[in-house]
Design goal:
The chain has 2 domains: 98 residues, Arc Repressor Mutant, subunit A, CATH 1.10.10; 68 residues. The chain is 64% helix and 7% strand. The protein is built from 7 helices and 3 strands. The two termini are 26 Å apart.
């Protein structure tokens, strides 16, 4: 994942490792964390795979400047085209960079993901209904308070996410 975040940042233009980390923290940092300990090995891998070039600045800090190659850009855009997945909130990283993806692919992926979220909501609401009925039969409902609260959180979270997806599909968010 870190390599893809770096490629997305470098689409914006040439950057040093420090700049990549700083821009990442200021943008996707709310849901994605990157350390220098993982950044520089990832940059090295990207240079070796020829997705990124490295340029020495020969200044007092011996800073290196990184640029995305055409192959790196193609690799990144191909990743953006893939269907959205909810694992580790990777989809938020992809959506952040969707300005680089064509409108048809954006809309297709967002609608498909929204349908997936709507299905998850339906499943969770069905489970919630069953659990509520079972809880009515128990003497000590408090014993299950935190487990049930997490289930309620899940339903509320996915409903919020579904509403947000509707808004960005219709371009109501700005």
């Amino acid at each position: 994942m870190i390599e893809l975040v770096i490629l997305g940042m470098l689409i914006e233009g040439k950057m040093s490792g420090y700049d990549i980390k700083k821009v990442t923290e200021q943008t996707v940092g709310i849901f994605y964390k990157m350390s220098y300990g993982s950044l520089y090995p990832a940059l090295k891998r990207l240079v070796q795979s020829e997705y990124v070039t490295e340029e020495e600045t020969n200044d007092s800090k011996n800073k290196k400047i990184y640029s995305i190659t055409d192959e790196g850009r193609s690799h990144f855009i191909q990743w953006l085209r893939e269907p959205l997945q909810s694992n580790k909130r990777e989809y938020l990283i992809k959506i952040f960079f969707y300005d680089y993806l064509d409108a048809a692919a954006k809309k297709q992926n967002l609608i498909a993901y929204q349908q997936n979220i709507a299905h998850q909501i339906s499943q969770m609401e069905a489970v919630q209904s069953i659990v509520s009925k079972e809880l009515e039969q128990l003497e000590d409902k408090e014993q299950y308070y935190y487990r049930v609260s997490v289930m309620h959180y899940g339903v509320h979270f996915f409903k919020m996410e579904n509403e947000w997806l509707k808004k960005i599909i219709d371009k109501e968010e700005l």
